[in-house]
Amino acid sequence: MDVKIITVSREFGCRGTEVAEKLAKELKFLLINKSYINDLMLKNGLEEDQLESLEESSPRPFNETRKRYIELMNKLILELAEASPIVLLGRGGQYLFKNHPSAFHIKIIGSIEERVRAVMTQYKLDRVGALKLITEQDRRRDLYINRVFGGDWNDLSLYSLTINMDYFDVTGSVKMITRSIKLANRDNSAFSDVQTLETPKDATGSIPHFAHSSEEEFAKLLDFYRIRWLYESKTFILGCDSEGNITSAFTPDFYLPDYDLYIELTTQKQRLVNYKNRKIRRLRELYPDINIKMIYGRDYKNILRKFGLI
Hints:
Residues 187-192 have low confidence and may be disordered. Helix 1 (16-27) crosses helix 7 (170-185) and helix 5 crosses helix 6 (127-149). This protein is of the alpha/beta class. The chain is built from 10 helices and 11 strands.
């Protein structure tokens, strides 16, 4: 798969516009957004007061005039995609380029609470006003997809990648997208490359001494996905005696600096899993700002099975 067309659909209030702009800049793709389309349509005969008809969120009815404008817009977008790689923001791109062999479709979502907070800040609204605006904008976009393409905007099977912005900022989201595209650009048989990867190296270029073979396998997977990592990079003090001597500490297996995330693997017996869980609970109590995730044995085996490593 050679990705040349990236479509970005977004729920209102999820910073999808920022993601599309940064993604296009990083990949050096043409960004087709509201501003670009307006300029394009003015050059093709539309008047300023007719441009709103092209908007997914426009309250104007879907009469024949509006449909003709949208058909012209879609025709011009298709022509642009033939001429150069594009990032298309909205406009039903997931349907316009549905099943296109070079298209990669992204949907940006978020919880209603996070979206309300973002809209309140951006538009200087109270909570009720923000909720009303989100509901109306999402309803109009859903209606646009239904009227123009006869489809369902919420059909997740349309998308190559869905990102919940509750967990990522714009920079992190773009990194995830670019890495996913790199994988999509590989031949499917490339997954077997995991088995033949060289000895994994951490973010500093060093080769650590792993305490368990499962940790080395996991490091190879991170290298395969081009995710920078550090092994046992920090020890957290969990308890001390009356004289200040450390009585309990915890050293997570991996740290992913690009995601500010610690990861602990556990492929051992349930008794040891419970022991690690207690330590992680204590760590979260003492260090509430630390992000840490436990990967349990069953989940880890599923990852290895996916790559044919077991």
